[in-house]
Amino acid sequence: MEKEDKIYVAGHRGMVGSAICRRLAKDGFANVVTRTHAELDLMDPAAVRRFYAEEKPDVAVIAAAKVGGIGANSAGNAVFLYENEMIAMNTVMGAFEAGVKRLLFLGSTCIYPRMAPQPIPESALLTSPLEKTNEGYALAKISGLKLCEFLRRDKGVTYHSLMPTNLYGPGDNYDVVGGHVLPTMIRKFETARLNRDPVVNLWGSGTPLREFLHVDDLAAACVFLLKMDNPPDLVNVGSGREVTIRTLAEMVKAATGCKAQIAWDRSKPDGTPRKLCDTTLIRSLGWKPEIDLEEGIRRTVECYRAELAAGNIRV
Ligand code: GDP
């Protein structure tokens, strides 16, 4: 990728896409094109084709997706499969048909089998059954990354994929029913602190292990891979540090200054017991994360407070 390249970032209003746009600007890539959802429906193949034909970007970064936490995914596997499949097929195939030479497709480490070896290497893909709570999302992302792999192998375009671990950071979605665990905890503890509630209710047993990566670290990894001439087809991006959900809760509670007790609602799902990705590959290429979890949570709580004060919390 060169400084003068025209770069299309799909999903630029989301937490990931906006972080990628910030990073591209910081690194001097000034020719970025975007479309809002209202301007371009990525589920509409004809509209996506028209867009690529008009703009003719050199590079595409696919950070658009329908995302959600364990609650939203487990209640809506059909919609998560359908919408993400449509977005992936249209944005990747549309780019290829319009002659886009380079594309980075973003997925998630939930593409790996539920009982994958830990830490999960890229080679674990499609070796055993998926986690049921987010199977729809995972299947759509697997199709997208496979489409990139096939086009690269058969047609010679540099289409490659990156699988981030659980992400958090500015611009996250704070929906307490359908959101991911970290932003949900921030909102629950902040709300309890402000209301002086005695108890915060969290889900499951608190024992599952999860890895978290600040979205600014992910954005740096995206630009790092885009600058490589011959990136691997599939690369994990994670922090390499895992914590139990219980430890995460204590960290978020401390960062917000909330004094409430924590109650665990065991009628809610735990999801996959462990999800740590093996980051040997990306580290061997020369990338590493810079923002540790405590610092990242502190910064994100500040962002949440600023977004709340400005009245633009996404839910
Ligand atoms: P996952 O990593 O794909 O499973 O999705 P999440 O980001 O939603 O994380 C889910 C993990 O956090 C599960 O083990 C949940 O039981 C646990 N958890 C604890 N409290 C909450 C909560 O309030 N919301 C969510 N989404 N998950 C919670």
Topology:
Elements: E1 7-10, H1 15-26, E2 32-33, H2 45-55, E3 59-62, H3 70-75, H4 77-97, E4 102-106, H5 135-155, E5 158-164, E6 166-168, H6 181-195, E7 199-203, E8 209-214, H7 215-226, E9 234-237, E10 242-244, H8 245-256, E11 261-265, E12 274-275, H9 280-285, H10 293-309
Parallel strand pairs: 1-2, 1-3, 3-4, 4-5, 5-9, 6-8, 7-11, 8-12
Antiparallel strand pairs: 8-10
Helix pairs in contact: 1-7, 2-4, 4-5, 6-8, 8-10
This protein binds guanosine-5'-diphosphate.
Oligomer: single chain
Q: Reading side by side through the largest sheet, how are the strands ordered?
A: 2-1-3-4-5-9
Q: Average pLDDT, to the nearest integer?
A: 96
Distance between the termini: 34 Å
User: SS-based structural class?
Assistant: alpha/beta
What CATH calls the topology is Rossmann fold
Structural domain count? 1
**Helix proportion range:** 40-55%
In words, what does this structure look like?
The chain is of the alpha/beta class and 315 residues long. The protein has a single domain, classed as NAD(P)-binding Rossmann-like Domain (Rossmann fold, 3-Layer(aba) Sandwich), CATH 3.40.50. The chain has helices at 15-26, 45-55, 70-75, 77-97, 135-155, 181-195, 215-226, 245-256, 280-285, 293-309, and strands at 7-10, 32-33, 59-62, 102-106, 158-164, 166-168, 199-203, 209-214, 234-237, 242-244, 261-265, 274-275. The strands form three sheets. A six-stranded parallel β-sheet has the order 2-1-3-4-5-9, with helices on both faces. Helix 5 (135-155) links the parallel strand 4 (102-106) and strand 5 (158-164). Helix 1 (15-26) packs across helix 7 and helix 6 (181-195) packs across helix 8. The chain is globular and about 60 Å long. The relative contact order is 0.15. The model has no long low-confidence stretch (mean pLDDT 96). Residues 69-71, 110, 134, 166, 179-181, 184, 202-204, 208, 210, 245, 268-271 line the site of guanosine-5'-diphosphate. Guanosine-5'-diphosphate binds next to helix 3, helix 6 and strand 7.
